[in-house]
Specification:
- With 138 residues, the protein is an alpha/beta fold.
- The protein has one domain: Transcription elongation factor, GreA/GreB, C-terminal domain (Chitinase A, domain 3), CATH 3.10.50.
- The protein contains three helices and seven strands; from the N terminus they run βααββββαββ.
- Strand 3 and strand 4 form a beta hairpin.
- Helix 1 runs antiparallel to helix 2.
- The radius of gyration is 14 Å and the shape is globular.
Length: 138
């Protein structure tokens, strides 16, 4: 789990809060997953979409990562659950690893529990960040 400060846009925080409440009501996520995402939202510094640094992972960002254990590179896009598709590299923010990467910066190492144990990934590059591209509506 990351301990350094994270940043989340006010727009993302609003949408995530609404989506999280609905996901809990509908039983789409476990209580533990909801607790982790709520904790991330509570500890985050909220920033205006135009003020978020380009090296911060926001919703709909595409990022290059490196698996610390295997040395394998990966490319993901952090998405809302309805857009998730593991085969296409679209990771849901409601997944443990999606929650872990939200608000992190280039150079951060994230850790997340997965069925096979704990994954450690280094964020190497933000390939696309909506806010940096002026796409404030995504």
């Amino acid at each position: 789990m990351k301990n350094n400060p994270i940043q989340i846009t006010e727009f993302d925080a609003s949408r995530l809060g609404s989506m999280l409440n609905q996901a809990v009501r509908e039983g789409l996520i476990t209580d533990a997953e909801a607790v982790k995402l709520r904790a991330e939202l509570r500890r985050a510094k909220m920033v205006a979409p135009g003020a978020v640094p380009s090296g911060v992972v926001t919703m709909n960002s595409t990022l290059d990562l490196l698996d610390i254990e295997t040395g394998e590179p990966e490319t993901w896009t952090l998405v809302f659950p309805e857009d998730a598709d593991a085969l296409e590299g679209r990771v849901s923010v409601l997944s443990p690893i999606g929650t872990a990467v939200l608000g992190c910066r280039v150079g951060d190492i994230i850790e997340s529990e997965v069925p096979a144990g704990v994954r450690r990934l280094a964020i190497q590059k933000i390939v696309y960040q909506p806010e940096a591209a002026g796409d404030f509506h995504l």
